[in-house]
Specification:
Shape: elongated
Largest sheet: 9 strands, mixed
Oligomer: single chain
Radius of gyration: 38 Å
Structural class: alpha+beta
Helix content: 25-40%
Number of strands: 29
Number of domains: 3
């Protein structure tokens, strides 16, 4: 089956991409510089012309004498020893490479060099099930630029199609030959591909060069017989300068090899090739034989216009997103004053609606809030084994919750949390019917409920979340903003339309062979998706003036909790707050205030510090909280950590090659040209 050459889209950070792509495309319209401006990831070999000292070109059919190479690769020194069973443990019976080098006209009306390459590769695989074919890679770098690859195909010796996959990745053409079936013995693969821009300026101002590696520079297998032929188009042959040269050996070797020239053809027959040795040819041409093309010269104006449309759509989408964000901001509050007393109408669940970033801690905070209010008691499960508490040295048993008859002062939302989330399956009745006695003498009214890993609690909490959102709106803290909603709809629709246009542009670029513009356009898809996600996440329910006041109050609570112990005591004793405090500011009163703030310390992520200070006051007063049964005062901090962790557990889960410099006039070496790459088993 024949697979066309594909390219993997390059992932580029969306915002940076949106800002610079338009500039890059416009620059491509006027750039006439070297191939380094090419956006395509495809290519061909380019090289340098003849070496003066290396070899001398004689008249037609005359042979240049060269030192003979060692023969059979298997007996050559340095042959790699491969572990038996490795996919690279095979050899090549022969490898023949043919290059047809010519000049084509680009859509922009400019001349451009190309090479049609045919490699007839004959591997010999072992009889055991080891190989499914070979992998051939061809680097596309040439000088400061990059070649393009196209028209990849693989056949057998009879011209039948051979299964393969081809791709351009990491600056290389990668061709995987074969399917999932094992192959054995002698196989023949005829690999053809076309490389564009194979003649380039490689640093020598006196020549342009075709400087190509005719064999993979990375290869673990010996080759029994290698031969190569390079044929120049007549219009190129008349512009050659100097003498052609070739080099044989490991990468970096300067040993010349024999080239036979017959008219337009250059034949190389080095014979056997040991592993990792390559053959590189260098042919020079008059300066300006092939112009160095700009992007517009390469592909014409139409693909550029098509590729420019999606970035414009992205910019428009980003503008709409910014406008939506500005219309989705909450009402700002005023001056924040430290608060030591929570508002009765602002329990943890509603507080998390006012400040959404607190929502993850709302579940454990609500458990502690209900406990402090006398609606439940937290107990150690006597039947559970002791387990270490993360972040502490303590070992405690799993906590469980027991319903109490107190909790008359619970906010309706928190009462619903107790009834429908924590004890929904316990059959205790509503906490609204609980006794009206003080929290200190509340009676147990049911069997305990396990907390950690309780799936029923997790499921009920998910359903409960919808009611909390409605309750926050009913309380006047939040209100749906028609303006924010309208801008969300506009942003989503504009982005969807822009995404559809970008997909259409990508399809057009594929049809007209837009080269690297296809990858750039495909990269925009991620940016459009990001805009859609961000737009969907921006709120349309915004804080009202009452919500802003609640927001400021919560910030005041947080500031009070973050104060030092001495500053908090002074705040309790100040003339501004004295009339709001019932009773003295001794240990009992401090414990009462600190207990009421404990759920909010959990909300703000300050629970470890707060629990430690509250524990110190319990020890000083020689008392234990009525709502925490079975724990010693010295274990209070560890117990709070254990409860918080258990509560969270109950919540629902949300290679060589690439010509880099001139190889002309004896400056070349084996492996210094473009192409080459690697080959191996698969």
């Amino acid at each position: 089956m024949h697979h066309q050459l594909t390219r993997r889209p390059t992932s580029i950070p969306a915002l940076l991409f949106a800002l610079v792509l338009g500039v890059l495309v416009l620059a491509g319209l006027f750039a006439a510089g070297p191939a380094t401006h090419a956006l395509a990831a495809t290519g061909a070999a380019a090289g340098s012309a003849a070496s003066s000292a290396a070899s001398t070109v004689s008249p037609a059919a005359e042979t240049i004498a060269l030192p003979a190479t060692e023969t059979a690769a298997n007996s050559a020194p340095g042959v790699k020893q491969l572990a038996a069973g490795s996919v690279d443990d095979f050899e090549f019976l022969s490898w023949d490479s043919e290059w047809q080098v010519g000049i084509e006209t680009t859509p922009g009306g400019k001349d451009r060099s190309y090479a049609e390459v045919t490699e007839t590769i004959v591997p010999v695989f072992p009889e055991q099930d080891q190989n499914r074919g070979i992998i051939r890679t061809v680097p596309l770098a040439i000088g400061d630029g990059r070649m393009e690859a196209s028209d990849v195909d693989v056949r057998d010796e009879d011209g039948n199609e051979v299964e393969f996959d081809s791709d351009v990745s990491g600056g290389e053409l990668v061709v995987e030959i074969g399917d999932d079936e094992y192959v054995h013995g002698e196989q023949t693969y005829v690999l053809t591909y076309t490389l564009h821009d194979v003649i380039a300026d490689l640093g020598n101002p006196e020549v342009q060069e075709f400087y190509a590696n005719l064999l993979p520079t990375t290869r673990a297998q010996p080759i029994g017989t290698f031969s190569a032929r390079v044929t120049l188009a007549p219009e190129l042959a008349e512009k050659t300068v100097g003498e052609a040269s070739c080099y044989l050996g490991d990468v970096g070797a300067t040993e010349p090899c024999e080239v036979t020239i017959d008219g337009l053809t250059y034949d190389l027959n080095p014979g056997a090739m040991p592993p990792d040795e390559t053959v590189t040819i260098n042919i020079g041409f008059e300066p300006g034989t092939v112009p160095q093309l700009s992007l517009l010269d390469r592909i014409g104006w139409f693909p550029l216009v098509v590729a420019f449309v999606p970035p414009v759509g992205l910019v428009v989408s980003l503008v709409f997103l910014v406008l939506q964000w500005r219309k989705s901001r909450h009402t700002r509050g005023g001056v924040v004053v430290s608060q030591y007393e929570p508002r009765a109408d602002l329990p943890p669940q509603l507080a998390a609606q006012v400040i959404p970033s607190l929502s993850l801690q709302a579940f454990p905070a609500s458990i502690l809030h209900a406990a402090v209010k006398g609606a439940l008691r937290i107990e150690e499960s006597v039947d559970a084994p002791e387990q270490p508490v993360a972040g502490t040295t303590a070992k405690l048993r799993a906590p469980q919750l027991r319903r109490l008859s107190g909790g008359a002062s619970l906010h309706p939302v928190e009462r619903q949390f107790v009834d429908e989330v924590l004890f929904a399956d316990a059959g205790y009745g509503s906490s609204a019917d609980a006794g009206q006695g003080s929290v200190t003498d509340a009676d147990s009214i049911g069997e305990p409920v396990p907390l950690a890993g309780n799936a029923a609690i997790g499921e009920a909490y998910t359903e409960f979340g919808k009611d909390v959102q409605n309750a926050a709106a009913d309380a006047g803290f939040l209100a749906k903003s028609p303006v924010a909603t309208a801008w969300k709809n506009r942003t989503i629709w504009v982005t969807i339309v822009s995404l559809v246009v970008a997909i259409a542009a990508f399809i057009i670029l594929v049809i007209v062979n837009g080269g690297g513009l296809m990858a750039l356009t495909a990269g925009l898809f991620f940016a459009f998706v990001a805009v859609l996600v961000i737009s969907a996440l921006l709120p349309t329910k915004l804080r009202t003036a009452e919500g802003a006041a609640a927001y400021d109050h919560l910030r005041g609570l947080r500031d009070y909790i973050k104060l030092s112990e001495a500053d908090r005591i002074r705040a309790l004793q100040s003339t501004d707050t004295a009339e709001r405090i019932d009773g003295p500011t001794g240990e009992a009163r401090i414990i009462e205030v600190y207990e009421q703030l404990l759920p909010y310390a959990v909300l703000f992520g300050l629970d470890r510090k707060w629990a430690k200070e509250l524990q110190a006051h319990y020890e000083a007063a020689d008392s234990t909280p009525f709502w925490l049964y079975g724990y010693q005062p010295v274990m209070f901090g560890a117990a709070m950590t254990h409860v918080k962790q258990s509560a969270h557990a109950a919540m629902p889960a949300s290679s060589g090659g690439g010509a880099s410099s001139s190889g002309f006039a004896g400056g070349g070496f084996a492996g210094g040209g473009a192409g080459g790459g690697s080959v191996g088993g698969r």
